[in-house]
């Protein structure tokens, strides 16, 4: 096999907001360069979105890579390595990894919608990686498309020249050949020395039932050959390479990968945990001295407990989580027990969509029925004895007298919204204890930057934002820092017993409203028992809201006809004593549905 000169290689990723047409453009590029035949593409859209859940929701979750061969107008043969990246804020770490392996990006913007919040976030990530950026306006064939206006917007908001943006319609294939030429002429080739010691970046890894762990790499210097002994510098583990190859999207094996190339290797690696994303791979016999700059590890920001509805499914859940962990390094979990829900796991996620996807994959791929507790974030507690502890489960909170202060994480949110919804968006942020940083206009749309506490955002902020803006607002955020806050632990007591699955940390000013909503909801959900059940929301020893579930009663005076009132009273008193005794010893059965519904309580 003749090796392609490094000057004829182009590594690029496609960045865009959700639904602006990244995966569809990737389809067209694969089709036009002959990566898959029309028959293989038939009836299948978004070829690179391999999970069912990606297809149904129409989003990309895992970044995928594909190698294409292209003969340009200058008659030379080029190799394109294309990375299709997710557009959603929760999967930003997938984006950052893909970008580090490339030299350039195609920035796809919907010509009818313009620049959105995630477009900005992903472009800034590309610019941080020193990428050359080619703007591409997609959906120009739609009647609502306004290409000139959107070009102006790209220049105003992002500050990159969009005068020669490529106009395309990824769905019909219009203008896609111009994109291929732009990749050749406007994106830089990779740099690298073929004769140097092997130095490669570990971009991603996933588990394959037949091959073990498949590792996606980008070779920087040297060559990666079959049979070579390699070393992972981060974990100091050494392996023998068994297979070397690339995806076209089908797996193709080759003897070696040279500098600038992106491909995969397998080396009898058992656990995905052994392959740290962002690690440097080098030759075992003569390793390089300096590691490549890795990626920031994915830090979970949202935590919640997952419990099986049927306690017998616990082992199945444990095995299922282990398998998911193999393909998603950003998902973490540890065991926990709850008096109300039994055995389960405390899991960490990158955001609410990530949580939802993992939950859905567990119930779908492993046929599990799960209950999730209220999502919470990491709080830092400074104790009076000078210790600092991190807490992400309200149940573990130490005694109030031992706490000096509590810090909560804050984020900087960027929200883009059409002008007519600005008032309701600002009110929503204000209600969530936000403080406004700046407000600017991008054409007819407002761009607001807000500092918000993360625990107000994880609850249901995204849903509320979509409903107050009729779905037009877009939202992106990143963590900034921790700030001291007046937070209290609110417990829900049912018949004077605390229900640990429903306890949460809330801001003191919001506690009463949240507590009242919670007890009203629980009152509807708990079925009546033979005795009355008080449901209370309490902070420490102080009850802030209460509702009562009425008792079921038998009419004990039914058989007293006429006669003295004292006979009736005697029977009623006796019944009252019995109810009191029952309430003392009676156990309240809270149905599982009640937990699920109460945890979805809307503020």
UniProtKB/TrEMBL annotation:
GO terms for cellular component: plasma membrane. Residues 7-191 form the Tr-type G domain. PROSITE patterns: G_TR_1, G_TR_2. One of its GO terms (biological process) is positive regulation of translation. It is found in: Cell membrane. The keyword Repressor does not apply. Its main location: membrane. It catalyses: GTP + H2O = GDP + phosphate + H(+). GTP binds at residues 19-24, 138-141. GO terms for molecular function: GTP binding; GTPase activity; guanosine tetraphosphate binding; ribosome binding; translation elongation factor activity. It is an enzyme of class 3 (hydrolase). It is a peripheral membrane protein. It comes from the Bacteria. Belongs to the TRAFAC class translation factor GTPase superfamily. Classic translation factor GTPase family. LepA subfamily. PANTHER family: TRANSLATION FACTOR GUF1 HOMOLOG, CHLOROPLASTIC (PTHR43512:SF4), TRANSLATION FACTOR GUF1-RELATED (PTHR43512). Required for accurate and efficient protein synthesis under certain stress conditions. May act as a fidelity factor of the translation reaction, by catalyzing a one-codon backward translocation of tRNAs on improperly translocated ribosomes. Back-translocation proceeds from a post-translocation (POST) complex to a pre-translocation (PRE) complex, thus giving elongation factor G a second chance to translocate the tRNAs correctly. Binds to ribosomes in a GTP-dependent manner. This is Elongation factor 4. It comes from Bradyrhizobium lablabi.
């Amino acid at each position: 096999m003749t090796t392609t000169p490094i000057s004829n290689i182009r590594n690029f990723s496609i960045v865009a907001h959700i639904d602006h047409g990244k995966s569809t453009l990737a389809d067209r590029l694969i089709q036009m360069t002959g990566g898959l035949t029309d028959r293989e593409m038939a009836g299948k859209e978004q070829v690179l979105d391999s999970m069912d859940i990606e297809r149904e929701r129409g989003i990309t979750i895992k970044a995928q890579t594909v190698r294409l061969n292209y003969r340009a107008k200058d008659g030379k043969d080029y190799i394109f390595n294309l990375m299709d990246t997710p557009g959603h804020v929760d999967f930003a770490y997938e984006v950052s990894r893909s970008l580090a392996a490339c030299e350039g990006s195609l920035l796809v913007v919907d010509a009818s919608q313009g620049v959105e919040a995630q477009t900005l976030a992903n472009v800034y990530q590309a610019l941080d990686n020193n990428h050359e950026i080619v703007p591409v306006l997609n959906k120009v064939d739609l009647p609502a498309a306004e290409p000139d206006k959107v070009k102006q917007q790209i220049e105003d908001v992002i500050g990159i020249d969009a005068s020669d943006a490529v106009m395309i319609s990824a769905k019909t294939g219009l203008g896609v050949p111009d994109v291929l030429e732009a990749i050749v002429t406007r994106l830089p080739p990779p740099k690298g020395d073929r004769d140097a010691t092997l130095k490669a970046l570990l971009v991603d890894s996933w588990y394959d039932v037949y091959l073990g762990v498949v590792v996606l790499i980008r070779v920087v210097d040297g060559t990666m050959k079959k049979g070579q002994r390699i070393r992972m510098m981060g974990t100091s583990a050494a392996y023998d390479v068994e297979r070397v190859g690339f995806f076209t999207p089908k797996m193709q094996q080759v003897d070696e990968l040279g500098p600038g190339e992106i491909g995969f290797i397998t080396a009898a690696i058992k656990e995905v945990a052994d392959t740290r994303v962002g690690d440097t791979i080098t030759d075992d016999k003569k390793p390089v001295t300096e590691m490549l700059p890795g990626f920031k590890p994915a830090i979970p920001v949202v935590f919640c407990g997952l419990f099986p509805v049927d306690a017998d499914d616990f082992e199945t859940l444990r095995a299922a989580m282990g398998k998911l962990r193999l393909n998603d390094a950003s998902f973490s979990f540890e065991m926990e027990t709850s008096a109300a829900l039994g055995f389960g796991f405390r899991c960490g996620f990158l955001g609410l969509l990530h949580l939802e996807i993992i939950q859905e994959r567990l119930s779908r791929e492993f046929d599990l029925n799960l209950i999730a507790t209220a999502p919470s974030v990491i709080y830092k507690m400074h104790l009076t004895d000078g210790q600092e502890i991190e807490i992400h489960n309200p149940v573990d909170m130490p005694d109030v007298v031992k706490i000096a202060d509590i810090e909560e994480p804050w984020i900087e949110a960027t929200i883009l919204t059409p002008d007519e919804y600005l008032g309701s968006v600002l009110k929503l942020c204000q209600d969530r204890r936000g403080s406004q940083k700046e407000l600017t206009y991008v054409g007819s749309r407002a761009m607001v930057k807000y500092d918000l506490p993360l625990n107000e955002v994880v609850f249901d902020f995204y849903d509320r934002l979509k409903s107050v803006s009729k779905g037009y607002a877009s939202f992106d955020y990143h963590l900034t820092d921790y700030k001291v806050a007046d937070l209290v632990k609110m417990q829900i007591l049912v018949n004077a017993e605390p229900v640990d699955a429903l306890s949460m940390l809330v801001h003191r000013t919001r506690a009463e409203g949240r507590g009242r909503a919670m007890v009203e909801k629980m009152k509807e959900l708990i079925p009546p028992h033979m005795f009355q059940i008080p449901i209370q929301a309490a902070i420490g020893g102080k009850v802030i809201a209460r509702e009562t579930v009425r008792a079921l009663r038998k009419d004990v005076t039914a058989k007293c006809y006429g006669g003295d009132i004292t006979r009736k009273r005697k029977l009623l008193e006796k019944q009252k004593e019995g109810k009191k005794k029952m309430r003392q010893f009676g156990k309240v059965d809270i149905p599982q549905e009640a937990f699920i519904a109460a945890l979805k309580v809307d503020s």
